[in-house]
Amino acid sequence: MTMREQIEAAAARYPDQRSAIMPALVIAQREHGHLPGPVLEEVADILGVERIWVYELATFYTLFHIEPVGMFHLQLCDNVSCMLRRSEDLLRHLEEVLGIKKGGTTPDGLFTLSTVECLGACEMAPVMQVGDEYHGHLDVARIDALLDSLRDMASEVESVEPAFARPPGE
């Protein structure tokens, strides 16, 4: 099924096409790896909604990526609860270990490092989201173990080229 067909099928479940924007963005991101401007425009055109509505949602939610990201997107919470539990120190550690700054992607395309305003998991502070999974009660040792685990997972995959180096749809 093409991306258009998937979006149209998802949109058919909603009484208002605007309500289908988020599911459509999930489909488009799965297809393209990220959501550059032309993809956002295509989603808006398929749904028949204002382009600004699509752009607003795509740029508001941290689950959507306007720019290419690595195989593992590390999103460290830097809100008050996490900050009070030393998330800033963990960010510095991640930057040092990965050799990138916040917002960067490792040269091998494995990791993109970001901070997010709040993951809504204060009871697990400090917390980081990797893909769809939350990792909480973090310290340097837990982060190092998590990075090792992610590297092991990546080595099991045949190709570890960056998501943005893959042709659309792969």
Given the C-alpha coordinates, what overall shape results? Answer: elongated
Structural class computed from helices and strand pairing: alpha+beta
Catalogue the unreliable spans.
Answer: 163-170
CATH topology of the largest domain: Glutaredoxin
Topology pattern, helix = H, strand = E = HHHHEHHEEEH
Into which percent range does the helicity of residues fall?
40-55%
Bin the strand percentage.
Answer: 5-15%
The CATH architecture assignment of the largest domain turns out to be 3-Layer(aba) Sandwich
What is the CATH first-level class name of the largest domain?
Answer: Alpha Beta
- Gyration radius over CA: 17 Å
Give the end-to-end Cα distance, rounded to a whole number of Å. 14 Å
The neighbouring-strand order within the major sheet is: 2-1-3-4
At the fourth level of CATH, the homologous superfamily of the largest domain is: Glutaredoxin
Sheet with the most strands? 4 strands, mixed
Number of domains: 2
Number of helices: 7
